Amino acid sequence: MPPLFRDRILSESKRDMRPTPSFRSTNSDLPSPFGDLDPNLSDSELRETAYDIFVAACRTSGGKPLTYISQSERSDRSPSSILSVNSPTSNSANSPSSNSPGLQRSLTLTAASKVKKAFGLKSSSSSKKNEISSPKTKRPVTVAELMRTQMRVSETVDSRVRRALLRIAAGQLGRRLESMVLPLELLQQLKFSDFTDQEEYNAWQKRNLKVLEAGLLLHPHLPLNKSDTAAQRLRQIIHGALERSMETGRNNESMQILRSSALSLACRSSDGSTEFCHWADGFPLNIRLYEKLLEACFDVNDETSIIEEVDELIELIKKTWVILGLNQVHHNLCLTWVLFQQFVTTGQVDNDLLYAADNQLAEVAKDAKTTKDPLYSKILSSTLSSILGWAEKRLLAYHDTFGSANIESMQSIVSLGVSAARILVEDISHEYRRKRKGEVDVARNRIDTYIRSSLRTAFAQRMEKADSSRRASKNQPNPVPVLAILAKDVAELASSEKAVYSPILKGWHPLAAGVAVATLHACYGNELKQFISNIIELTPDAVQVLREADKLEKDLVQIAVEDSVDSDDGGKAIIREMPPYEAETVIADLVKAWIKTRVDRLKEWVDRNLQQEVWNPKANDEGFAPSAVEALRLIDETLDAFFLLPIPMHPALLPDLMAGLDRCLQYYITKSKSGCGTRSTYVPTMPALTRCSTVSKLWKKKEKPQTPQRRNSQVATMEGDNNFSGISQLCARINTLQRMRSEIEVLEKRIITHLKNSESANVEDISNALGKKFELAPPACLEGIQQLCEAVAYKIVFQDLSNVLWDGLYIGDPSSSRIDPFIHDLERNLLTISDTVHERVRPRLIADIMKASFDGFLLVLLGGGPSRAFSQNDSRIIEDDFNSLKDLFWANGDGLPADLIEKFSTTVRSVLPLFRTDTESLIDRFRRMTLEMYGSSAKSRIPLPPTSGQWNPTEPNTLLRIICHRNDESASKFLKKTYNLPKKL
User: Fold this and answer.
1) Cα separation of the two ends of the chain
2) What is the DSSP letter of 914?
3) Is the pTM of this model over 0.70?
4) Are 428 and 377 in contact (CB under 8 A)?
5) What 3-state DSSP class applies to 260?
6) CA-CA distances (angstroms) from residue 91 to 62, 82, 88, 280, 920?
7) Is the model's pLDDT at 81 over the cut of 50?
8) What is the pLDDT of residue 140?
9) How far is CA 34 from the centre of its chain?
10) What pLDDT is attached to residue 431?
11) What share of the chain is helix, strand, coil (3-state, %, to 5)?
12) How many alpha carbons lie under 13 Å from residue 634 in its C-beta half-sphere?
């Protein structure tokens, strides 16, 4: 017999002196892991049924005829002969030698419990005292009598059960108990006359019917077939009998149907044999019945104590295994739960019960490694999960659960929880089996979780206390001392943990104290970080907090080092969990927060002032925006303030400041060019291809020409264009970015001067340029200037001068709509730009205008739509006009360099010769180029080449557009035949 129980070892007076635990549980806190029964059998009904099984199992174990002793005879006979087993050759019912050894054993001479001796427990001193001082006290003198008393069964009920068993034995001599259905036999043997009244009889009958329903229909040993007629008949007759009492004591038709249906279901087995009847061995009915039997081991007068006769009682209870379908592993598991449940439901005052449950769990662990039954694994998992859940509810906040008064129980609760967790993980979890066992330390992981959880809870409670103090001193300018007080409280908590709890937890986790202080270190560190985030500069109060934090850290690290002296890594893992509260680090964080605040403010200022900026080039002599001057001044002031901070790490933190200021400048530059458009914003959409009309009046216009509307449909405009329509405003933006480029260089030189005057800087800091220059702003300025120059150029050409270019140039007769108006207006714009734009940017902007003019000129020639047509003779006019346009930018040598003009005019010069080429040659060249592009697929039908926008004399689309604008009959016929192009849109 494995060690199971612990006896009550303290006298009543000593028990009264036990400290009241800090926790209480009720049945509702500890639901049964075995599940609920349907129909709902009450505790008393389960207990009475369990007692029936117990008595029947014990009476038939001897295999000899039974003799019933009436109630009146009992009082006159010795207790040892109450249940006698008569030999067929002897009538001496009182002969002890013929009695069932378990039931008839005298309890007055019971030796000390072997179970208790196995546990090393003493017999109850109070029990011995009662035996000596009160020899005449009425006590049960047989195990059977003791069991009846323990299960709260009256003598009347006990007599009735025995009487029924005798009748069963007389009617079925030699038949074993496991081959019959006990509730069925009891129903047939007992009549209404065997009960005191109708109510008692009805209650007894309903209980046995509900047991039959539970054992055969709801929780059967083997699953039922839905089409089983026996199950249907049994269900009908039971439900009918539950609603209206039936006569079961006679062999009537109802009883015959009940009997035949019940036996048909009970005799089912997986191997086909009918030797055993299965009516009480289905889960969870069997476990719940067995649970009630084991609960009888606790003294009815003192539920925290176990009876002295536990050995004999357990041996008799085991005789029910054959009926309940249980074995030793089920017994061990159920006993573990009963011991644990008794400890919880009796107020958790007797740690001996907890100790016994923990020891019994060791037997369960052995069983779990060798038993592979799926049902047992399910029961085991549910039971251990309930135990573990209860234990962890206390251990996850063990500072609240255990104190000096009840610290003794902590050892057993930790052991119980860890043992349950280990079995669940190592013997049930499939995940664990896939890993090597050395990779998972269940006990250590659990204890680690308990320590961290409980200390976080304890820290939070001290934080609440600190918050109360903070609210009380909310009128003070700076409540920093609260964190200083909290540091002292945490130090006391760590000291208490080391002295009281760590010695217990160290049995499962070698670094228990180290984990505890690492957790406290992290908790306080989080609060310290929050405190630092709320201050801008170093103050005396801040220094006080940092000193207390430093002292706390030293205490915590010292505990961690002492706790890990014998560890394999010397405590390195724990120390790694404790990032230091270094003063320099804290100061650096404060400075970084200061930098972030300044940078955020600067960005907000940029947003606010750019919204108000009007970009007036006349705001100052150099034509740049006042907001840029102010932004540069704020950046300069921020740099000055940074180098005035009383910190020893200016060179180290300067890159952070530079990065923030750099982003602000980049943001200003991006916002400055935002919404000003690009080349694609202003270039008009080319109309669909058409062929020229050969009527006398070529390129006939619409009846009501709507030039402005046509222009608006072709030239894209920006939303809110009024804000940026003026060329002078765009020039002011260009000047602003150019100003910022030059001022950024000045700022970088001043930073070097600041570093030279800084006490914390060395020669390497000054010579190393990393982190001391603006990385984003200079290229952003250059990119912004390029974008704005392009926007100005294409806006002038395609939007501001669209009336003389897109809507005027070569409309109708080319000789009467030449380029002179466009050149005149463009020259006027160039003069304005020369007076407005900074001289260093001016050549770039004029070059972009020249490029936009050339693009516009080509677009008119190749994509001007049906209102433009050119004959071969018009080529001279076009070439002269283009030369005039180039001359405008050369300006007799005072304008752009000639080589630059030639470079930008390359595309136009390559395309213009096509206009003096004859039509047939153009068509022939177009066919040849298209064939080269598309291959043999273009022989049958020439495909329409796509518009690439990259004009080139060898590009098919460029050639096609020349043909489309050719005022020639052969060109028109070719386009009609090849593409069926219309003459007008």
Assistant:
1) 107
2) G
3) no
4) yes
5) helix
6) 17, 14, 8, 35, 143
7) no
8) 65
9) 32
10) 54
11) 65, 0, 35
12) 22
Tokens of 35: 């599940």
How distant is the alpha carbon of residue 274 from its chain centre?
55
Q: CA 408: distance to chain centroid?
A: 38
Token representation of residue 128:
């011995």
The answer to which of 48-57, 625-634, 822-831, 928-937 has the lowest mean pLDDT is 928-937
As given in the structure block, the two tokens for residue 141 are 């003198």
**Average pLDDT of the chain?**
81
Distances (CA, A) of 478 to 346, 481, 549, 551, 603: 52, 8, 17, 21, 29
- The residue assigned the tokens 């006359």 is 193
CA distance 630 to 132: 104
pLDDT of 102 higher than 50:
no
The per-residue pLDDT for 545 is 83
Higher-scoring residue by pLDDT: 621, 66: 621
Tokens standing for residue 572:
């390195």
Kindly state the helix (H) or strand (E) to which residue 306 belongs, with its residue range: strand 302-306
Cα–Cα dist 865/742, whole Å? 47
Q: 3-state secondary structure string, 415-435?
A: HHHHHHHHHHHHHHCHHHHHC
Separation CA 32–CA 341 (nearest Å): 9
Cα gap 554→491, rounded to integer Å: 10
State the Cα–Cα distance between residues 359 and 371, nearest whole angstrom.
19
What residues contact 499, with CB distance under 8 A and at least 6 apart? none
Q: Provide the H-helix boundaries in 577-683.
A: 583-612, 626-644, 650-673, 679-682
SS3 assignment, position 123: coil
d(CA 677, CA 662): 24
Nearest to residue 505, comparing CAs of 573, 555, 455?
455
CA gap 450, 943 in Å, rounded: 79
Buried b (16+ CB within 10 A) or exposed e, 422-432: bbbbbbbeeeb
Report the C-alpha dihedral over residues 173, 179, 183, 184, rounded to 10 degrees. Answer: -80
Nearest-angstrom CA–CA distance, 36 and 283: 10
CA distance 19 to 249: 56
Which two tokens mark 977? 């035949």
Q: What is the rounded CA–CA span in Å between residue 81 and residue 89? A: 18
Report the pLDDT value the prediction gives residue 269, as an integer from 0 to 100: 85
Which bin fits 934, alpha (ψ -120 to 50), beta or left (φ > 0)? alpha
DSSP letters along 709-764, please?
HHHHHHS---TTGGGT--HHHHHHHHHHHHHHHHHHHHHHHHHHHHHHH-TT--HH
What is the number of other CB atoms lying within 10 angstroms of the CB of residue 530?
Answer: 10
Alpha carbon distance 571, 610 (integer Å): 57
Q: pLDDT tier at 211 (50, 70, 90 boundaries)?
A: very high
Contacting residues for 356 by C-beta, under 8 A, at least 6 apart: 3, 4, 5, 6, 119, 339
Q: Does 646 sit behind a cis peptide bond, omega within 30 degrees of 0 on the bond before it?
A: no
Distances (CA, A) of 514 to 208, 370, 414, 458, 495: 60, 37, 18, 16, 12
Place of tokens 């072997």: 114
The structure tokens listed for 792 are 């100005």
Q: Return d(Cα 917, Cα 954) in angstroms, integer.
A: 13
Interatomic CA distance for residues 636 and 395, integer angstroms: 59
Q: How far is 115 from 123, CA to CA, in rounded Å?
A: 11
What b-and-e string marks burial along 178-201, b requiring 16 or more CB atoms within 10 Å of the CB? bebbbbbbbbbbbebebbeeeeeb
535 close to 590: Cβ distance less than 8 angstroms: yes
Please name which of 837, 831, 812, 810 lies closest in space to residue 821, comparing C-alpha atoms: 810
Which two tokens mark 985?
């849109």
H or E segment and range at residue 302: strand 302-306
